[in-house]
Design brief:
Number of helices: 7
Radius of gyration: 17 Å
Strand content: under 5%
CATH architecture: Up-down Bundle
Largest sheet: none
Number of domains: 1
Oligomer: single chain
CATH class: Mainly Alpha
Shape: globular
Structural class: mainly alpha
CATH topology: Growth Hormone, Chain: A
Distance between the termini: 43 Å
Number of strands: 0
Amino acid sequence: MANGAFWTLAPVFSKLNTGDINAVAIFMSLTVIAGGLGQWPLGWLSDRVDRRRVIAGAGIGASLGGVLVVSLTSVDPNWTYLGAVVFGAFSFPLYALCAAHLYDVVEPDGYVEATGGLLMAYAAGAIAGPLIASVLMEGFGANSLFLYTACIHIAVAVYANYRMGVQERPLVDEKAAFSDALVMTTALGEIDPRTEIEEPE
């Protein structure tokens, strides 16, 4: 719901606040680059601690990034780029982190069904998110986009924290290795990340 809204409406947000097409390109590029780079430290950490803690931390970080975008926009649109970097670094890895956690807890014969369910949930959110965010932006202004994403990311953090209280984390040696994948991808590159792929001769 958050990232679908971002990809659809962030260019509109940037254009309304800056009036400059070049600024839109810089804003989007910095967010994507930060998202790609953010996967390595978050993925590395999630392989070593309870992955849900990293998911909760990323949700909080993404929420703060959204608030930072809004706050800095009111000061100087050029400073919005800093908020974009923080937002991208924490929000984009969330999908891959959640997918890795899914593989940690699903039985080996359930990967295909679980991946299908994850993709359906992502698709439903990617449809609903832009619709909700566009209504908010129309009624309350462009800045409501990132206040909306902040609410979604806080909800992710709260739910991850709740799950830690009701289910023990998988043992480290039972965890699937984190596979980095930008959140804007609509399909998972690996159905089973533990499956070894044979190279053709």
